[in-house]
Design goal:
binds nicotinamide-adenine-dinucleotide, alpha/beta, 8 helices, Rossmann fold
Length: 274
């Protein structure tokens, strides 16, 4: 049964019976104003991290931070940043260092979905999806990795998708971008394995977020009717909750996963096991 409403909330009351794996650590979450990013912000805050939410949508980011503070999680800041623009990412990382003097966890989460077969997707739509879903993972990591190298380590989690593991219909640009994120995850994991930076990815099946709701209408369905179809596709018989994706991110970013790097972890209710 679904217990969340797609807003990215969840994970219980602030700090409720959570271990504090991120005490003293600083985390940057791109696309943190909504969905999986917002749920992960809540989870990492509950576990003791200072969290910076960076999002294209400044108003939503401010609202998300205010909501988290209302839940008793004060150590959160919201910054507007378009993760496709190098100068904005550079300024964001400089601001984090001026505020916190370190950066331990990067969750490359910002993403968009636009349906289409190759003959339907125009050049702008192709570039937009590859830009937000793949190039940004390079770009944000490009500015964050030097900080992690300097401080002796860190953990990066990329938000790929089951679309990095199996193909999907009418999603050519999305699958291409997420497939690239999967391979970038493995390549970065190898490059930094001996220098204290672990790089892993989550590969979610359908998660009940605002992106899912938009995706439903984009393909001509209501969220309710699309949910029914997706229940069939996910062996556990339901789609996922933002908090379930957030729990996987928290695990990969924590020292509990100290021997994991280069992993593409399905968080998909068995979708990719079929
Ligand atoms: N929801 C799913 O079913 C699902 C499944 C697999 C993977 N994912 C991936 O999870 C990630 C988060 O998805 P979600 O479902 O939480 O979506 P969402 O739409 O709820 O949140 C995405 C956030 O990214 C932000 N964003 C978009 N473009 C940006 C940019 N250029 N710069 C900065 N921020 C930007 C949006 O403003 C939004 O707040 C995406 O990468 C998505 O591809 C989602």
């Amino acid at each position: 049964m679904q217990t969340e409403d797609g807003t990215g909330k969840g994970g219980g009351e602030a700090g409720a019976s959570r271990c504090r794996r991120f005490e003293g650590k600083v985390a940057l979450i791109t696309g943190g104003a909504s969905g999986i990013g917002l749920a992960t912000a809540g989870r990492l805050l509950e576990e003791g991290a200072a969290v910076v939410i960076a999002d294209l949508d400044s108003e939503a980011a401010q609202a998300a931070a205010a909501e988290l503070k209302d839940r008793g999680l004060p150590d959160v800041a919201a910054r507007r940043c378009d993760v496709t623009r190098g100068a904005e990412v550079e300024a964001l990382v400089a601001w984090i260092l001026s505020e916190h003097e370190r950066l331990d966890v990067l969750f490359n989460n910002a993403g968009i979905y636009e349906p289409g077969e190759v003959h339907e997707i125009d050049e702008e739509a192709w570039d937009r999806q590859i830009g937000v879903n793949l190039r940004s993972v390079y770009l944000v990591s490009h500015h964050v990795v030097p900080v992690m190298l300097e401080q002796g380590g860190g953990a990066i989690v990329n938000n790929a998708s089951v679309a990095a593991l199996v193909g999907d219909f009418k999603s050519a640009a999305y699958c291409t971008g997420k497939g690239g994120v999967g391979m970038l995850t493995r390549a970065m994991a190898l490059d930094y394995a001996k220098r204290g930076i672990r790089v892993n990815a989550i590969c979610c099946g359908e998660i009940d977020t605002p992106l899912f709701v938009r995706e439903s209408y984009q393909i001509g369905l209501t969220p309710e009717s699309y949910r029914e179809i997706l229940y069939e596709a996910h062996p556990v018989g339901r789609i996922g909750l933002p908090s379930e994706a957030a729990a996987a991110v928290a695990y990969l970013a924590s020292d509990d996963a100290s021997f994991l790097t280069g992993v593409l972890l399905p968080v998909d209710g068995g979708y990719s096991a079929v």
